[in-house]
Design brief:
By secondary structure, this protein is of the alpha/beta class. The chain contains 15 helices and 14 strands. A hairpin with an 8-residue loop joins β13 and β14. The structure holds adenosine-5'-diphosphate.
Amino acid sequence: MKILVINTGSSSVKYKLYDLRKKEVLSKGLLEKIYEPGTRLTHEKLPEHPDRKVKTENSISLTHKSGLERIAGLLSDNEYGVISNNDEISAVGHRVVHGGETFKTPAVIDEKVISAIKENIPLAPLHNPSNLTGIEIVGNLFPKAIQVAVFDTTFHQTMPPEAFIYALPYELYEKHRVRKYGFHGTSHAYVSRKAAGFLERPLDELNMITIHLGNGGSMCAIQNGSCIETSMGMTPLGGLVMGTRCGDLDPSIPFFLSDHLNMSLKEIDSLLNKSSGLKGICGVNDMREVIKRKNQGDIRAELALKKYIRRIRKYIGAYFAILEKLDCLIFTGGIGENAMEIREGCCSGLNRLGIEIDRERNQITKNKIREINKPMSQLKILVVPTDEELMIALETQEVLSYL
Ligand code: ADP
């Protein structure tokens, strides 16, 4: 069964074609800077094979439609293609950012699902419209394939009301759906499943804290395999310190910025999303660069790192308090998987919680699931490489099996 996974953003499209029967990635690619003169398309055939082939096209000006047509063309291209015609693809799994409260599971896309995704546009005005564009265009390009929507938010739909409600007038929730939703759901779901497999224990018996640290970052408290708390909120701005996002903040700060600095709502929105976080404190958002600068004696970079780690430690403490027991702590995402100093900073001195990191094991770098707790430790600390596209493909396959 060949499943295409598509992530359509406002200016980019990521795709991966899987043959799940053979457990193989047949093709993957990235279309960047859509609607700009320098649109760039990188397409790979058999990315994990020795006879891998890459095609890069630069400076072509493409739209979502012409870009997706180009991708479909490459997938069945004589030289770079992996299918003989579009009908070979059984299903397409679309990443959709916001499913609101409507979607508790992935959904086969039909008119009703499309209107429900539209209804959730106010909750994700930057993302859901592009996701819908992708759904429409891909639906026309692959008319025989079943289209499935996989949402970033569904994994968190198991949170109890006391976790998702804000202490605001209740009507805001009832009438306008103002509440915590949480994001990165496919990643939290994937790494928790992987961890259960690795530990050879049933997922529904495990309590875990998952820590996804990429350009964005979020944490999840998982009880018996289900999410009961997460750090992002109604939007992906809340929670941890991120590359350019501030995370948790005194809600009065935007008023101060407006009253005293005459900033408009748009400017404040941009400041909190694009110029804050690590970048706000030390001028750069890429973690490798922050660590490099700190090692060169840059005091701001050191402060940014301390703040970054302190926030994660506070969430570990908070989640420890709401979980009755903790079996496992999981690091994932570009930073969680690669930055040993961040993992050590988050875990050191937490022996009293049963969190005992092994410094030597923590320093081993390999792109594989691994244990970094002290050998005799009851509580496991795992590094789990995430794979959101594979999770979308697996969830798509799961949905098909119910049809
Ligand atoms: P995204 O959230 O866009 O998917 P990733 O999960 O790839 O991003 O994470 C990107 C982050 O991972 C960047 O801040 C990058 O600096 C960081 N990163 C990648 N490799 C390393 C490394 N070896 N050490 C420290 N940080 C790393």
